[in-house]
Design brief:
heterodimer; A: alpha/beta; five-stranded parallel beta sheet; 27 helices; 39 strands; about 30% helix; elongated; B: mainly beta; four-stranded antiparallel beta sheet
Chain lengths: ~850, ~120
C-alpha cells in the first residue's frame, strides 16, 4: 500500500488530508501527518477571536478523533528534522525514521522578525500561534500600552486584539500608508481615519532602528531619531516560508525563500510536493488561505493520478473586517498590470472609499478596492472572475444602491460555474442544487453539506441570497418571522394581539414568545400595540426605541431634538415667537424641517419636560417626529391666497394632519395636500397625497422619498373630502395591518400581489368587504389620541425618568458642542 | 472618562469596593439607567423577567457615545445583551463582546442587590 507523509498540520495541511481522504480510502493510501504544534490544525484566520473567548476548541478545524476516524496517523508535537530523498525516509526530532512513497510539505510560514537590535527583549512578541497569543495575553494584563510593528492585514488584526485587551495601542508602519499591498493612498487614508477614531495611534514612515530597554523593552527608536515609549511590542512585519527542510534536502529554493513548485505542486523532486505558504509558485508566495486550499486540492488529485486540474495561480482577493471597518481588495487592485480606467467614489464624512479598474475598452472589470463599505465585494469579484459584461454605466457597480436593487438581483444572471465560496471552491450550481434537491433546507444546512462559508465566511451573505433565490424558484414562500423570540410574522402577531386583546409586550412574550426579547421585536410589538390600542407609549417605555422612550429624536452626542406639531405648516407670529423664546432660553439649534415645521436641537434629556411644559402652555403639542407615526401633512398656500388655487389646501391639510396625528404604523407616514396640479406641496412623493382638481380631489398613495424615491400612484379621482378621508382611513389601516415591520408604503405596495389595482379593489371597490371594519378600527384608534408630552409634563413620576444619571443631578459631561454659523452643533464623533 | 480604555472589566472575585448606587425601585423594569461613579458612567440593567442585574460601561465603543444605558435590553440564544440606540450595535452583558459587528468588547461589572439597594463592584478603592 502507498504511504503518503504530510509534514505540517496547519490549515492547508489539514485541508490536504481531508481532500486526499475523499479521493482515496485507507485501503489505497496510508496517510501520516506530523505537526510541530501541540494541538491539531486550527483556524488561524480567526485567531484574533481567541482574545475575546480564549477557547482554543472553537478554532480547531477537526478534533484528534477525526483523524482516527479517517484512519490518518496524526503526530502532534513532533517535528520532522531531516528528509532523506535517496532512501525516501523522514526522520523526526526524536530520531524516529519513517519511509514514504510521496511526501507533502505543508510547513507554512513563520512570522518574519526584521533584524532590529533588541527583538530578544522581554515584552516583544510575534503574532502567529495560539501560544503566541497566550503569551501576549498573560504579559498584556499588567501593561498599559502596546505597539504593533507592521500596518498590514495581520498587524491591524493584532492591533484590534490590543485594543480589546484595553491597551493604549500604536501601529508602526515603515511605508507611507497602511496596508500598502492592498490599498492605494486614498484607501489607506480612509482606513486610517476610521481606525484612529477608535483611539489607535498610527505612525507612518517609521523605520524602526532599535528596541530599547534594560532587559524588557521600554521604547522603539526610529531612524528619524524620534522615540515611542511603549510597554510591549507585537511584531507583524510579514511572513517567511518555513523552507528549511527543503533547503537541507537540496530542493530548488527561490532567491527570497520558498520551495519552488510546478503547476501540479511538485517540487524539483517529483515525489515531493509543497503546498501553502511554503510553496513558491511562479515567484509568488500566497499568504492567504484560499489559494492554499486550491493547492491542497491540486496536490491531492495529482497524487491519485488526476492530472487534469492545475494550479494556475490565484489572485490575492480578500475581504475582511478590520476593527469594524470593511476592507476588500480584489484582482488588479492598483490597475498596475494593464491599461485601465479607474472609477473612484469617496465619501469622507462616512469614511467610505471605493475604486474599480475597468479595462481600457470598457468591457471588463480588472480589480479594485473597497474601504468602509464592502457590500459590493462578492458581486464585483464574481463579475471580474467570470468576465461578466459590465452595465452601461460601470459606476453603478459601486453606487449600486441608487437604483435600490437588492443584492439578489444580479445573482440570477451568474453562471452556474461561478465560484461563490473561494475557500472551499463551491460554485453557485452546487449551492442551488443542494437546495433544489432538498438536501439543504436552510442556510445552515448548505454550510454543512457543501462546506460553503466554512472558511473565511465572507461569502455568507451571497449564500443566504442564493438560498432565498433557489427557494423562490421552488415556489416556496420565504416566511419572514420577526426574530428568534417570536416565530411569527408581523401580520400574524398583529392578528394574535387583536384577537386575544393583548395589551402588553410581556404578556405577548409570556404566551407566544421565548427568551427576553430584543431590539427588533420590542419596538415592532410596541408599534403594533400602539396601532391597535393607541395607549400611551410611556406606559411601556423600555420596549420603545430611545426616540419613542424619551419622546424626542436622539442626535449625535446624545442630546435630543424637539419638534412641536405645526399642522399644515401654518403658524401664527405669536407661536413663532414662543418657539424662538424657548430656543433662546435653552440654547437650542433651530432649523426649518423638510416637513414645514421647526426643529429645536441640542436639548439635554432632563431639559425635555421643561421645554415641553413651555411649548404646551403656548398651545403646542407633540409633533411625533420621534415615532413611526404620522409626521406632517405638507401643504401649499392654496386657494385662500394663491391666484391659481382651486381649493383650500391648507385647511384640508390641517384637517387631515389633526385626524391622523399620533397614529402609529409600521414606518413613518407623510402626507401632503396641493391646491392645484402645479403640485407645490409635492404630494406625489408622499405616503398619501391629495391634489385639488376642478371637480374635487385626486388621491395618490404609496409615494416615498428616501433611498429609492418612488412616485405615488393614483388611487381615486375627483372625489369629495369625505370620500377622500374614508379612502385614506381604509388605506392606512390596511397598510398598518399587513405591512412588515419598518416597511414604508412604497415597498409594501411593490410587494403587494396585484399592486395598485388590487389596492384600489380593496380600498375603493371594497372587494374583501372589510372597508367598514377598517374605518371603524381607524375610528377607535384615533378616538383615544392624547398628546404624550402633555401626559409626561403633568405626571411627576414620568417626568422623573428624564435624567441622565440615576444617582446624580449632574448633566452628562460627555456632551460637548462646537459652533457653526452662529449656532451650536454637537462635537464631531 | 469618555475613552473606552478608561473602562476595564471587573470580575466578581476581584471586587474590592461595592459601590451603593441607588435603590432597586429607581431602575425601570426590564430596562437600564446610568450610574455615576467617580467620573465613570456605568450602565446598569434590570432584567426583571429573569431576576438578574448586569452592569457595563455606558460608552458605546462604535462612535464613543455615552448611551448604552438608554439601549434596549434582551437576549440572544439566552445570552443577555444590550443594543446601542444609535446604530444598534449589540453587546453581551456577560462577556462584553459585540454580538453583531466587529466592535471592541465593552467592560462589564458585577452587580449585587442587598436590602433593596443596587451595588456595583469595582476593583479600585
Amino acid at each position: 500500500m502507498r504511504h503518503i507523509v504530510v509534514i505540517g498540520n496547519g490549515m492547508v495541511g489539514y485541508k490536504f488530508c481531508e481532500k486526499l481522504r475523499k479521493l482515496a480510502d485507507p485501503t489505497q493510501v496510508a496517510i501520516t501527518v506530523f505537526g510541530e504544534e501541540c494541538r491539531p490544525a486550527y483556524d488561524r484566520v480567526h485567531l484574533s477571536e481567541y482574545f475575546s473567548d480564549q477557547n482554543a476548541d472553537k478554532l480547531t478545524l477537526a478534533p484528534a478523533r477525526w483523524y482516527e476516524e479517517q484512519n490518518i496517523q496524526l503526530h502532534t508535537g513532533e517535528l520532522i528534522a531531516w528528509i532523506d530523498r535517496r532512501n525516501k525516509t523522514v526522520e523526526t526530532h526524536r530520531g524516529k525514521t519513517l519511509s514514504y512513497d510521496q511526501l507533502v510539505i505543508a510547513t507554512g510560514s513563520s512570522a518574519f522578525v526584521p533584524p532590529i537590535p533588541g527583538t530578544d527583549k522581554r515584552g516583544v512578541f510575534v503574532y502567529r500561534t495560539i501560544e503566541d497569543l497566550e503569551a501576549i495575553i498573560a504579559y498584556g494584563k499588567k501593561m498599559r500600552s502596546a505597539a504593533v510593528l507592521g500596518g498590514g492585514l495581520l498587524g491591524l488584526e493584532a492591533a484590534k486584539a490590543m485594543v480589546d485587551m484595553g491597551l493604549e495601542t500604536h501601529v508602526v508602519e515603515f511605508a507611507s500608508r497602511l496596508m500598502p499591498r492592498q490599498l492605494d493612498e486614498v484607501g489607506a487614508r480612509t482606513l486610517q481615519t476610521r481606525i484612529e477614531e477608535l483611539g489607535i495611534q498610527v505612525h507612518l514612515n517609521k523605520n524602526t532602528q532599535a528596541i530599547s530597554g534594560n532587559g524588557k523593552l521600554d521604547a522603539l527608536r526610529f531612524a528619524d531619531e524620534s522615540n515611542l515609549p511603549v510597554d510591549m511590542l507585537v511584531i507583524s512585519a510579514g511572513i517567511r516560508p518555513r523552507d528549511e527542510l527543503g533547503r537541507s534536502a537540496r530542493l530548488d529554493i527561490g532567491p527570497r525563500g520558498g520551495i519552488v513548485v510546478n503547476d501540479a505542486m511538485q517540487t524539483s523532486d517529483p515525489a515531493i510536493y509543497a503546498i501553502g505558504e511554503v510553496a513558491l509558485h511562479q515567484d509568488i508566495i500566497y499568504g492567504l488561505v484560499a489559494p492554499g486550499y486550491d493547492m491542497a486540492e491540486v496536490a491531492a488529485r495529482h497524487l491519485v493520478g488526476d492530472i487534469e486540474k492545475n494550479f494556475s495561480g490565484d489572485d490575492m482577493s480578500t475581504k475582511l473586517k478590520l476593527m469594524g471597518v470593511d476592507v476588500a481588495s480584489f484582482g488588479d487592485a492598483f490597475g498596475a498590470k494593464s491599461e485601465h480606467n479607474a472609477i473612484v467614489f469617496e465619501d469622507k464624512a462616512k469614511g467610505v472609499y471605493k475604486r474599480i479598474n475597468i479595462s481600457a475598452d470598457g468591457k471588463r472589470l480588472l480589480g479594485g478596492m473597497l474601504v468602509g463599505d464592502a457590500e459590493a465585494y462578492n458581486m464585483l469579484l464574481q463579475t471580474m472572475q467570470n468576465g461578466m459584461a459590465l452595465p452601461p454605466n460601470p459606476e453603478d457597480l459601486i453606487l449600486g444602491s441608487r437604483g435600490g436593487e437588492t443584492s439578489g438581483a444580479g445573482l440570477d444572471s451568474l453562471p452556474d460555474e461561478a465560484q461563490i465560496c473561494s475557500c472551499e471552491a463551491v460554485t453557485k450550481g452546487m449551492i442551488c442544487e443542494a437546495v433544489l434537491t432538498g438536501e439543504a433546507q436552510s442556510v445552515k444546512e448548505i454550510k454543512a453539506c457543501t462546506k460553503a462559508g466554512t472558511g473565511c465566511g465572507g461569502c455568507m451573505p451571497m449564500v443566504s441570497d442564493l438560498f432565498d433565490l433557489a427557494q423562490a424558484k421552488m415556489g416556496k414562500r420565504v416566511r419572514k418571522t420577526l426574530c428568534e423570540h417570536f416565530n411569527y410574522t408581523r401580520q400574524e402577531l398583529l392578528d394574535i394581539i387583536q384577537v386575544k386583546e393583548i395589551k402588553s409586550y410581556d404578556t405577548l412574550l409570556n404566551e407566544y414568545g421565548t427568551g427576553d426579547g430584543c431590539e427588533v421585536c420590542k419596538p415592532a410589538v410596541a408599534s403594533i400595540l400602539a396601532s391597535l390600542w393607541n395607549e400611551l407609549v410611556t406606559q411601556q417605555d423600555t420596549i420603545q426605541d430611545t426616540n419613542d422612550r424619551f419622546l424626542a429624536n436622539i442626535q449625535r452626542g446624545g442630546t435630543y431634538s424637539v419638534v412641536p406639531r405645526i399642522p399644515g405648516g401654518e403658524i401664527t407670529p405669536d407661536k413663532l415667537i414662543v418657539i424662538g423664546q424657548v430656543a433662546k432660553k435653552y440654547d437650542l439649534y433651530t432649523k426649518i424641517t423638510g416637513g414645514q415645521r421647526i426643529d429645536l436641537f441640542g436639548a439635554h434629556l432632563h431639559q425635555l419636560p421643561d421645554i415641553w411644559e413651555e411649548l404646551i402652555a403656548a398651545g403646542f403639542e407633540s409633533g411625533h417626529a420621534y415615532g413611526k407615526s404620522l409626521r406632517t401633512v405638507k401643504s401649499c398656500v392654496g386657494s385662500a391666497w394663491c391666484r391659481y388655487g382651486l381649493h383650500d389646501s391648507v385647511s384640508f391639510a390641517i384637517e387631515v394632519e389633526d385626524r391622523y396625528k399620533g397614529l402609529r404604523s409600521p414606518h413613518k407616514l407623510k402626507g401632503a395636500v396641493s391646491g392645484c396640479a402645479r403640485e407645490c406641496a409635492e404630494a406625489q412623493s408622499k405616503d398619501f397625497g391629495i391634489i385639488a382638481t376642478d371637480k374635487g380631489w385626486n388621491l395618490y398613495v404609496c409615494g416615498n422619498g428616501g433611498i429609492k424615491p418612488q412616485h405615488a400612484l393614483l388611487l381615486a379621482q375627483d372625489v369629495d373630502k369625505e370620500t377622500c378621508i374614508k379612502y385614506i382611513d381604509r388605506f392606512l389601516m390596511f397598510y398598518i395591518k399587513t405591512a412588515e415591520t419598518l416597511t414604508r408604503t412604497a415597498p409594501w405596495l411593490n410587494k403587494l400581489e396585484g399592486g395598485i389595482d388590487y389596492l384600489r379593489d380593496v380600498v375603493v371597490n371594497d372587494c374583501l368587504g372589510i372597508g367598514e371594519q377598517l374605518e371603524q378600527e381607524m375610528q377607535r384608534t384615533l378616538a383615544v389620541y392624547r398628546c404624550e408630552w402633555k401626559e409626561v409634563v403633568n405626571n411627576p413620576e414620568l417626568r422623573a425618568k428624564f435624567t441622565h444619571f440615576i444617582n446624580s443631578e449632574a448633566t452628562d459631561p460627555a456632551v460637548q458642542f462646537d459652533e457653526m454659523r452662529g449656532q451650536k452643533v454637537p462635537a464631531k464623533w | 472618562m469618555t475613552n473606552t480604555l478608561d473602562y476595564k472589566t471587573v470580575s466578581s472575585e476581584n471586587v474590592t469596593n461595592w459601590f451603593k448606587a441607588a435603590p432597586v425601585t429607581a431602575f425601570p423594569a426590564n430596562g437600564g439607567a446610568c450610574v455615576l461613579y467617580r467620573g465613570k458612567q456605568i450602565a446598569v440593567f434590570n432584567f426583571t423577567r429573569r431576576d438578574e442585574w448586569y452592569a457595563c460601561q455606558n460608552l458605546c465603543p462604535h462612535k464613543q457615545q455615552m448611551i448604552l444605558s438608554r439601549g434596549m435590553i434582551g437576549s440572544e440564544q439566552d445570552e443577555p445583551k444590550v443594543a446601542c440606540p444609535f446604530h444598534k450595535r449589540a453587546f453581551s452583558l456577560q462577556s462584553g463582546k459585540c454580538l453583531n459587528a466587529d466592535e471592541c468588547a465593552i467592560a462589564t461589572y458585577p452587580v449585587k442587590i442587598e436590602e433593596g439597594y443596587v451595588y456595583i463592584g469595582f476593583d479600585e478603592a
